[in-house]
Amino acid sequence: MCDRCTNRFAAPVPGPYRRKKLWETDPKLHCSIIGTCLTLGDLRRTAAKLRVDIPAHFEDYDVHGHFAGSVGRPGPISKALHKILERKHAAAVRRFGKAKDTDAVNALWARCLEDGDIPGPFWALITHPASPPKVVWNAFGHVHMLSHLLGSSNSADIRRLKSLEDERDVLVEDLATAKRRVAEGEFDVRRLMEQHADDIRELGLRLHSAQSAASRLEVAEQRIRDLENDQTHQFLQSRLAETEQQLAAEMEMRQRDAGNVTGLGSELAELRRANDQLQVALSAATEECEDLEAVLCKGLANSGERTRAAIDLCGSRIVYVGGRTALVPHLRALVQRSNGSFVYHDGGIEEKGERLSEVLAQGDAVLCPVDCVSHGACRLAKRVCKQRSKAFVPLRSSGMSSFVSGLREIASVIKTDQVDVKEALLIPGKMNRNLNA
Asked: What is the DSSP secondary-structure string of 265-310?
């Protein structure tokens, strides 16, 4: 590997007052750290957790060598093993953390050697910021010789030691699980105790309130007994009964008055609506009467004086749909006197409805009394007039006065040059409102 690649994966140099990470230690120490400070159980559990592919035929030294060669740079394996070392040897790390210089570190390491406490102190010493290389390699030499001594001992002792270590790891896991369960149980017990204490306090408050209420009730009952034995109380009771009767009578009268007011208000609103409708009808009837009076004056008066202008249809053909048959001759005569032609269809009563379209096509304007014609005939007349750009005037009634008003509207449309053809399809006004109604 070239120098550039080597520098690329090199571990960062730790600061002077910071403990080293596992991958920041000398690579020559990794084998000793992995073999001394961690057990094979730790390595195999880490392999299972990280899903490291370790073949089944690997011996223990193969597993050890695999992990020792994987912690040279930061990665999932090196970070996981570093966390295990920190957690497993936290007590030794705290003990060595109190040593502020090299002499204190050497003295503490010497005491650990005498006591036979090697794995935790060895990890704490190697990562301590006050451990110079001479101290680190001196400790490494001690650990290295101890490994030789262990290697020269009886293999049965080694197997027993390994079994004890595995048993210790299992017991450590069981102890941690038991501690967690105990902590959870203690938490539940404290929570229940707090809940019971709250319940007791609440019950105490309720009891105190009940006792106070009982005492107040007893005093009130005694005062009620005293008042009942007094004549003033009896007098007040009789006055109260009389007042309640008067109040009930007043309330009943007020409800009746309120019902009468509501009924009168509704009746007044109906009368106002009826009055408005009568005013509209009166206005329309007055206008129709004026038109009829003008026509009668034109035909009967000897003098040339007229109240309103004469109707001039300018030769237009007027189609009348529906209405009363008895008035048809008079309507025809009135149209002819007004300089127009009259075409009639009864709206389908006696004549066939199919002929209505032909009759509508003959006229220049259509009059249709909405009170004496079928809805189908009226809608057909309105649709044909819209398609053929003809004037359509719905009449309020089938009387002579409404007919005269309709003729006057048609005459005004014929004489007005400014009215557009499309605007003359349906003449707006009071007649259209009557049709919609």
From this structure: HHHHHHHHHHHHHHHHHHHHHHHHHHHHHHHHHHHH-SSS--SSPP
